[in-house]
Every structure is written in C-alpha cells, then in structure tokens.
Design goal:
α2 runs antiparallel to α3. The protein starts with a strand and ends with a helix. By secondary structure, the protein is α+β, with helices and mostly antiparallel strands. The mean pLDDT is 86. Strands 5, 6, 7, 8 and 9 form a five-stranded antiparallel beta sheet that branches. It is built from six helices and 18 strands.
C-alpha cells in the first residue's frame, strides 16, 4: 500500500519505474484513492472510505471518512495529511502553498459553498469561508495567494475574491466550535441539553486561557488541554452511542450521532493542531 508515482521520460517516450512516497496508505482496505490536483511538481491525493464499509451506524450510507495528502514529487516526500471527514473536492494553489477543500453534500450532487483553506506543508487549518452554494473555484498562476469564486447563471455572473494567506485567530475558531456545538444540539445531532452545556463550558474555559491579558505559551497549553477535554468527551459519548445502537438500545439521555461527532471532533482537532502539543504526562494527570 502507499502512494506511487512514475516519471514519464519525454525524450525517451517511456515511463519510468513506480516510486513509493512516504508511509501513507489507505485508511481501510476498502478505501478509494483520488488524484484531485497537480501543480509544479506537487500532487494532491485523497483517500476516502464510506461509513457503511467500516460497519459504523449512520443515518446516511454516504457518510465519509477521508484525508488529503500533498506529495512533493520533485523531492520524493509527503506532507502532513489533512483529515477531512466530509464529501469534498480538493485544490492546490498555484505555488502549492495552500490546500483548498470544497465541501459537497453527502451524495456529492451539490456544492455547499463551505470552503476550508489549509497550509499545505503543515496541514494546519488557516480559515473557513462560507460562500454561496453551487459556485466554481478558480485558481490562477499569476494570483498565487488568491481564490476566485464564480457564481451565477445565464450570463449574470459574479466573482468573489478570497485571500488564501489569511489566518483565522484560534479564539475565533473556538467561537465557531461553540456555535457548531449549539447548532448540533438544535439539530438533534447531540443530546441532551446538560451535555451540550458541559461541552460549551469547556470551550469557554479554553478561550479564557487564550484571551487573558499577557497570555503566554503556558496559557496556550492550558487552552489546548480544555479543547482536548472537549474532544475526548465528544468521542467518549459517541462510542457509547455506537454501542447502544449495535444493541438496538434507544438514546435516553446524552448521545452523539456520527454527523455530530464529525462536526465537533474534527473541528476540535483543527484547533489543537494550531496550539502547542500537550505532553503525554500532562494528559495522564488530567485523567487522574
């Protein structure tokens, strides 16, 4: 398993031997692999697995688990994978500095207008952008830090510009996750009210550490610990929910559906990727 590229020798009109890149392989034996984009010696690859092939209960058979990988073909290396559990299309900016991911509906028939920009090399989330649905993403070589989004029909087109080098502050990402938590509760993706309130409290505490006057690296670590508590609690209740569903037990109190888990778990991880790493011994202390 893994990613292989073959060099085509133009002068000899023949293909060279396949060469393996890094140690990244399929998430699951039934994973599908796609090549989304190529730019100046770089390739954007994704592995995709559908939930029902993993035996995971879901309200829709199209629930996706996946990740994007940027391959630097010239240097024979791969960059840090970008986890993306939604049905999506991926793009590389002209200089391959940014990965742009455009979310689609679960069935893949429509574009939602939700666009996420990542640092191609570090895999870190830079920004979320909500654009009108059903548009078209355009990336041009002479505008390496710009995304153009074309919307409209019948000759009535509008072009929206997005600066790719904008980095959303972590505190703002936490606010977004709080909003997603409340939204998940309102849409019955998580339950119950006390559980949802407990989750948002953890995020409120995380933001306090980050936004206090003269915040230091230690405060950023404290923030990361609170976000990690949030993520672990979401995962814990999600696993309990799966076990109950396997036993055909009804959700009586708190629960997390697979759709709610994806929203909350992965967006928490995007925040953790922007914060200082938590030492293993610190995590052990928190659990005791």
């Amino acid at each position: 398993t893994g990613i292989y590229f073959s060099e085509y020798l133009v002068d000899q009109k023949q293909q060279g031997n396949p060469q393996r890149f890094g140690n990244v392989g399929p998430i699951h034996p039934n994973s599908l692999i796609y090549q989304h984009d190529t730019k100046i010696g770089y390739a954007l690859i994704s592995y995709v697995t559908v939930a029902n092939t993993l035996g995971i209960p879901s309200t829709t058979p199209f629930t996706i688990f996946g990740e994007y990988v940027v391959c630097n073909v010239n240097e024979n290396e791969i960059y840090i994978p970008i986890k993306d559990p939604w049905n999506s299309d991926g793009y590389l900016s002209s200089t391959a500095n940014y990965v742009v991911i455009e979310q689609k509906t679960d069935e893949g028939e429509h574009k939602t207008g939700k666009v996420t920009v990542f640092n191609a090399k570090t895999g870190q989330l830079m920004q979320h952008v909500q654009l009108p649905p059903e548009g078209k993403i355009l990336l041009f070589d002479n505008y390496p830090d710009k995304l153009f989004y074309l919307t409209g029909t019948d000759g009535n087109f509008q072009s929206i510009q997005v600066s790719l080098n904008v980095v959303t502050p972590v505190a703002t990402l936490i606010d977004t996750l709080i909003a997603l938590t409340n939204q998940s509760y309102q849409q019955n993706l998580i339950g119950d009210k006390n559980f949802a309130r407990d989750l948002t409290k953890k995020l409120d505490e995380a933001k306090k550490h980050l936004t206090k006057k003269h915040a230091s690296t230690k405060d950023s670590v404290k923030c990361a610990k609170e976000v990690r508590k949030f993520q672990k609690k979401v995962n814990e209740v999600y696993e309990e929910t799966i076990e109950k569903e396997k036993k055909h037990e009804h959700h009586k109190e708190k629960f997390v559906t697979i759709e709610g888990w994806k929203f909350l778990y992965y967006n928490a991880q995007y925040i953790l990727d922007r914060l200082p790493a938590i030492k293993k011994e610190d995590e052990v202390e928190e659990e005791q």
